[in-house]
Amino acid sequence: MSRLRIGLIVGTLLFASAVPALAQQGTAEIAGRVTDEQGAVLPGVAIVVTNEETGIFREVTTSEEGTYLASQLVPGRYGVVAKLLGFRTMERGGLILPVGTTLTINLTLAVGAVEETITVVGESPLIDTTSARVGGNIGAEELAETPATHRNYFAIVSQLPGVVFTPSNQMGNDTIVAAGQTSQNNNVSVDGGYNADDALGTSAGAQVRTPLEAIQEFQVMTSMYDAEFGRASGAIINAVTKAGTNQFKGVVFGSFVSNRLTAKDFLVKQNNLEKPTTTQRDWGGVIGGPIVRNKAHFFFSLERQVDNPNRTGIFP
Question: Buried b / exposed e across 7-37, counting CB within 10 Å, b at 16+?
Fold first, then answer.
């Protein structure tokens, strides 16, 4: 076997083994314990965790202690179904699973036929009680309704305590400072992949600027985060991009600025000069939907920016 073929095989195996570790930062978990009405734990309960937007599901079984864990879940809205012979089926829906969190969903099964179903809806919002991390999550609703400088989600990060947004005159180089650290000490990941410049850290922003319309949500941690988030002493920014669902959805956006919409600056007025031609165009859109319902989906994002910021200077 040639060295090239051996190298390709080894590289493929290393990549395949690395993917789960990277993906941990862009996913979430649902865990809990299943008991009967007397509080006794129930092993062997079939748990089905389903993404209500895509139909993709995960099946797990409770352990001897009655506990279960569904990990590596894509953030979104989920439903949980528990079934065991001799007990009524328990369903819980509308569970919002933010990125980087573990939701604890404890279930109680009542004696009865499996065909009988108990559905629980309309409960209070759930929080992650398994972590001591300091920070917060920004969801799709806040992203859609909050103005963002340069259409960069870094600007929205500054809504969280202890985080300050530092815009740049170069639209892709916006960054933040947090927890009293410099911007080089931040760690940015998108869908679990490292997204900070290895040479500059995040002093010039993320390595790849993800379009705002393509971001589903993100998590920011400023202290007390786990060891899985290394290479940083400032903020951990953990972003997740949107994905296709069982419904076709799309957004088109655009903005335009020209010298006809701006006033003359001081030097232009002082020297009675013509106002320089200045243009800025930002347009794009996203679209996603099903390829095969409940099995395969697609998502496409495009953003185009054209910036021509002419300036006036007077030289003696």
Answer: eeeeeeeeeeeeeeeeebbbbbbbbbbbbbe
As a whole number of angstroms, the distance between CA 241 and CA 75 comes to 10
Q: Which among 193, 207, 99, 211 is positioned nearest to 152, based on CA atoms?
A: 211
Domains of the chain plus CATH, in order, are 23-120 (2.60.40.1120), 134-241 (2.170.130.10), 249-308 (no CATH)
**Which candidate, 80, 77, 71, places its Cα nearest to that of 26?**
71
CA distance 282 to 152: 12
| Cross-strand pairs, 85 | none
Its pTM stands at 0.72
DSSP code at position 277 = P
Q: Is 114 helix (H, G, I), strand (E, B) or coil?
A: coil
| Residue 190 dihedral angles phi and psi, to the nearest 5° | -125, 120
In Å, how far are 7, 13, 15, 312 from 3, measured between CA atoms? 6, 15, 18, 60
CA distance 186 to 207: 12
pLDDT tens across 177-233, in order? Answer: 887 777 777 888 888 888 776 555 445 567 777 888 889 888 888 777 777 666 677
Dump pLDDT digits (tens) for 125-156: 555 666 656 767 888 788 888 888 778 888 88
